[in-house]
């Protein structure tokens, strides 16, 4: 079954990523919350670049900005930068072994924190606490299981026996 035969996987995965981002967490664990939306958008940019690109990343980022109540356009900019880098290196990244791919995603998530910090500095907004710099680590560790899950759903593997 092709990815075209399962068009619901893309919007459902983005919706679930948004919901996971809104899910309340204890204050102690809050800094370790993975950027679910970035992980899901990264998967789709890598695996379905015909449908998912910069415009998609921008639109999803604006929806996230509205849903999370942050600075309008911040997440849109962060996701567009990530999608741009992924598009540029997509052909190489697709052939990386999964641990190396996870490291690359971790680097992108760290870059996301840098962009967020620069935006907050430029606008005079309060900076996130230093503990928030740990968030790329769980995102990097979750990349492989998330990739395998989304790939199985997209391709229809493992759904029926």
TrEMBL record:
Localization (cell): Cell inner membrane; Cell membrane
GO cellular component, one term: plasma membrane
Bilayer topology term: Multi-pass membrane protein
Keywords: Cell inner membrane, Cell membrane, Cell shape, Membrane, Transmembrane, Transmembrane helix
InterPro entries found in the cross-reference section: Cell_shape_determining_MreD, MreD_proteobac
A Pfam family reported for this protein in Swiss-Prot or TrEMBL: MreD
A GO BP annotation: regulation of cell shape
Transmembrane stretches, start-end: 53-72, 93-111, 131-153
Function comment: Involved in formation of the rod shape of the cell. May also contribute to regulation of formation of penicillin-binding proteins.
Family that this chain belongs to: Belongs to the MreD family.
Descriptive protein name: Rod shape-determining protein MreD
Protein source organism: Luteimonas granuli
């Amino acid at each position: 079954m092709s990815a075209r035969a399962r068009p619901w996987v893309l919007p459902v995965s983005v919706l679930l990523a948004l919901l996971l981002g809104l899910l309340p967490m204890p204050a102690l664990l809050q800094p370790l919350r993975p950027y679910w939306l970035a992980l899901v958008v990264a998967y789709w940019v890598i695996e379905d670049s015909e449908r998912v690109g910069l415009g998609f990343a921008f639109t999803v980022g604006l929806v996230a900005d509205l849903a999370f109540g942050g600075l309008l356009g911040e997440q849109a900019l962060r996701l567009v930068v990530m999608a741009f880098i992924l598009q540029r290196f997509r052909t190489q990244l697709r052939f990386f072994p999964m641990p190396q791919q996870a490291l690359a995603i971790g680097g992108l998530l760290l870059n996301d924190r840098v962009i967020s910090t620069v935006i907050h500095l430029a606008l005079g907004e309060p900076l996130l606490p230093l503990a928030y710099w740990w968030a790329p680590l769980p995102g990097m560790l979750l990349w492989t299981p998330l990739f395998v899950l989304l790939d199985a759903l997209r391709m229809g593997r493992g759904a029926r026996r």
